[in-house]
Amino acid sequence: MNTLLLTVGRVLLALYFLVPGIMKFVSWDMHIQLMEKHDMPFVPVLLGLAGIFQIGAAILLIANRFTWIVALLLAGLVLVINVSLHDFWNYSGLEGAHEMQNFIKNLGIFAGLLVLSGHSMPECCKAKSVSQ
């Protein structure tokens, strides 16, 4: 049962990045506008890199390859996106509430990626506790 739950969770996290990664290319202009609205630099380059990274990372998670490092890298991406694009502190009203909701949701995704990374990390990379 443990393996089934981990597999389903890993694949669902992967889909969370695969679909938006694909949509970055399908809805290119919409994503460009969103990034420009938030005054991001190098918008076309960053958008393309983010889309390629999300698709590649999602495929690796689905295949259960390099899971711990991919999950950590995706966690980093989530933090960058959260601060850059879900800056609720710069908005008020409904738009501010919506951005705060996305920010908090992404913290949950971030936490899930950290758990997946920690669980998937090979023993050689885990910190050893010191017995006294």
TrEMBL record:
<feature type="transmembrane region" description="Helical">
    <location>
        <begin position="42"/>
        <end position="62"/>
    </location>
</feature>
<dbReference type="GO" id="GO:0016020">
    <property type="term" value="C:membrane"/>
</dbReference>
<keyword id="KW-0472">Membrane</keyword>
<keyword id="KW-0812">Transmembrane</keyword>
<dbReference type="InterPro" id="IPR032808">
    <property type="entry name" value="DoxX"/>
</dbReference>
<dbReference type="Pfam" id="PF07681">
    <property type="entry name" value="DoxX"/>
</dbReference>
<protein>
    <submittedName>
        <fullName>DoxX family protein</fullName>
    </submittedName>
</protein>
<feature type="transmembrane region" description="Helical">
    <location>
        <begin position="12"/>
        <end position="30"/>
    </location>
</feature>
<keyword id="KW-1133">Transmembrane helix</keyword>
<feature type="transmembrane region" description="Helical">
    <location>
        <begin position="68"/>
        <end position="91"/>
    </location>
</feature>
